[in-house]
Give the backbone structure.
Amino acid sequence: QVQLVESGGGLVQPGGSLRLSCAATSSIFSIYAMGWYRQAPGKQRDLVARLSTVGGEVYADSVKGRFTISRDNAKNTVYLQMNSLKPEDTAVYYCNTAPAWYMWGQGTQVTVSS
């Protein structure tokens, strides 16, 4: 069973940056498209960034131009660089394949607040 472990969240002021990491216990990143998702309190979990196996990137309109998804297949890790953070980016962030096939990890909390 593949496990996904997210890290890198925290409290940041508006306009700040964070880099999230997601490590997998198996070499899935070279096989499947990967995605970063987020879920704010009381809302559904949404896909915000997707990276195909050949490097194509797709972003939700709300994060386009501010977030960048990347991966390191050798390290079984996918990253999400988040710049110019806004309070509305506050959520728990998760990674998974896109579409999501595996059990969700615990996520990492991102809080954007002054």
Summary: The CA atoms of residues 9 and 110 lie 5 Å apart. The chain has a mean pLDDT of 95. The chain has no helices and ten strands.
